[in-house]
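Marked as duplicate of an earlier ticket. Keeping the data here for the record.
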Amino acid sequence: MTALATSQAASHAGDDQESATAPHADCIADSAGGLTFDVTDPGEPGTRDAAYLLLRRRESDDEVRLPLSPSADGRLRAALPSSVQLAEGRWNAYAQVAGGAPRRLMPGVNDLRSLVDRAPSGSRGHVAVRIPYATKQGNLSVRSWLRAPHAEAGEIELADAAMTVNGRVYGTALTEAAYAEAVRRAEPDLAHRVEVTAEGPEFTFGLRHGLLADSGPGPWDLWLRPAGESGPRVRLARLLDDVPDKKTIFTYPAVRLVTAAHGAVEAGPYYTNDNDLSVRIREVRDEEETGGRENGTEA
């Protein structure tokens, strides 16, 4: 075995050993937006009565510290109630004992059944969503959204180079003045307004891809104006389930359109990295490239 191979093997062995000894956490989500963490012993004897679970938001100084208390099965438990607000973003999870350095938590079993088909009341004026997940490096993180109000995208129907979006609004009411709009991300002043059909908190609207394609390639973001111009502007998103990243899970076929100014383009809906609903317009160069392209890189 070469020196490089020996070094790599030792490194992998160290990683495996660290993974085996790192504290793990099982997570249980409740329908109100709360999370319970059951953590294995952080590995510092005699300090179980001074242990904490830390949540740190990436690319910020935000931190939430939750006390870890002994539970009936010998592990340590921390609760994140729905009343404790988490700013939108990705929060890394750590276990820490008094005087010790925080240790990155590894994911255990996530019980997210209560998040499937979740329908919060919206009575608080906002919707809080927290979904624990395993990162690409195998660590535990929590994806958080806090929307006030919130427009939840439901079924999307595609036909005849058009899309019909069904959804439900939370934290506000739909009025007769309600409408939806597609806003060109690179030109926020360029927007196309479409009519909304409302029944209680549920809404439906249709949007033809050709309306957007005439402006050329680029993403369009979808918004709801529940009370028209005088009310809030609400980003459409799909948040109320157990899937932290929708972009590669909920995918839709693109249709090909030919425009007078820009030639052939592809158009279709997609979810961004934040699970917001948008429409992608892309240039089509030739059939071979069209068949080989992936889902694109728009946020």
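See parent ticket for discussion. Helices lie at 3-21, 209-213, 287-292.
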